[in-house]
Recover the amino acids of this structure.
């Protein structure tokens, strides 16, 4: 199981959102061998939630950003973006 560090700025911490994030982002482990760190931050700016994800895995750094009024939509967007990045990297690595 991947350990994810969450940071909340200008909004209350939500255990439900963290659990949802853990479930969604666990799919990343299919594409990478060793996750060194995974940090997710949520911040409210002008009524919108901005989410950032920094993933350090297999000696590579991946970043994703998403914004929405809904925290779960933010997490879904992060999942889509990070899976796209690690998937492309995984395909490149396996085609060598």
């Amino acid at each position: 199981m991947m350990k994810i560090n969450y940071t909340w700025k200008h909004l209350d911490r939500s255990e439900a959102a963290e659990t949802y994030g853990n479930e969604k982002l666990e799919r990343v482990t299919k594409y990478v061998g060793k996750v060194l760190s995974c940090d997710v931050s949520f911040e409210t700016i002008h009524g919108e939630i901005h989410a950032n994800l920094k993933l350090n895995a297999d000696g590579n750094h991946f970043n994703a950003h998403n914004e929405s009024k809904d925290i779960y939509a933010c997490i879904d967007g992060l999942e889509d973006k990070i899976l796209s990045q690690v998937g492309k990297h995984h395909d490149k690595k396996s085609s060598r």
Notes: Helices lie at 15-25, 71-94. Residues 71-94 form the longest helix (24 residues).
